[in-house]
Amino acid sequence: MTFRLVTNSITIIERGIIKTIFKPWVSDNEIFVTTSLVDIPRPEYWKDKLSSLGHEIVFRYYGCEVKSPDKLPYPDYSGYYIQAENRVDKNLEGIFIKHISKYEKSISLHFQNKDKQLGSIWIDLTRVLSELQDAKISSGIANLMATIG
């Protein structure tokens, strides 16, 4: 849509800044992490880490068959799901790998839990994420810095 404005003068008024404070909250199903890692972790990394914590996981696309970690596209395997091996036939999704990006000096990862039955895997995945080098974690409107020590 276009319109024509005919006028003798225009006054531009500067908008004031409205400051609002929100109570911090952490999402129970979404996490975003940036890390100073040089390389994106391979899918095998997640499988090994979660297996060491007692979880047998698999990878797959939405509702599709299981894919071996070495068959996922690397370095960008976003769009795949992490699913508990025993839930493949019960849920079409899992923990969605929503976004993976590599920048000059950082890597960003974004995960979203789309299967409420994966609570213990989700908690352990967040623990693994917090152990990444120089992890900066965002969840909800909270920003966290993980320090290993």
Shape: elongated
Runs in which pLDDT lies below 50 for 5 or more consecutive residues are: none
Number of domains: 1
CATH level 1 name: Alpha Beta
* Terminal Cα span: 59 Å
Give the percentage of residues in beta strands. 25-35%
Along the chain, the helix and strand elements come as EHEEEEEHEE
Stated plainly, the CATH topology is called Alpha-Beta Plaits
The portion of residues assigned to helices is 10-25%
- Compute the average pLDDT: 90
Spatial strand sequence of the major β-sheet: 3-2-4-5-6-1-7-8
Number of helices: 2
CATH architecture: 2-Layer Sandwich
Biggest sheet details = 8 strands, antiparallel
- The overall strand count is 8
The gyration radius over C-alpha positions equals 21 Å
Class per helix and strand makeup: alpha+beta
Nutshell version of this structure?
By secondary structure, this protein is of the alpha+beta class. The chain contains two helices and eight strands. The chain is elongated.
What topology emerges from the helices and strands here?
Layout: E1 30-35, H1 43-52, E2 57-60, E3 66-67, E4 81-84, E5 95-102, E6 107-113, H2 119-130, E7 136-139, E8 142-145
Antiparallel strand pairs: 1-6, 1-7, 2-3, 2-4, 4-5, 5-6, 7-8
What can you tell me about this protein's structure?
21% of the residues are buried. The model has no long low-confidence stretch (mean pLDDT 90). With 149 residues, the chain is of the alpha+beta class. It has helices spanning 43-52, 119-130; strands at residues 30-35, 57-60, 66-67, 81-84, 95-102, 107-113, 136-139, 142-145. Strand 5 and strand 6 form a beta hairpin. The protein has an eight-stranded antiparallel beta sheet with strand order 3-2-4-5-6-1-7-8, covered by helices on one side.
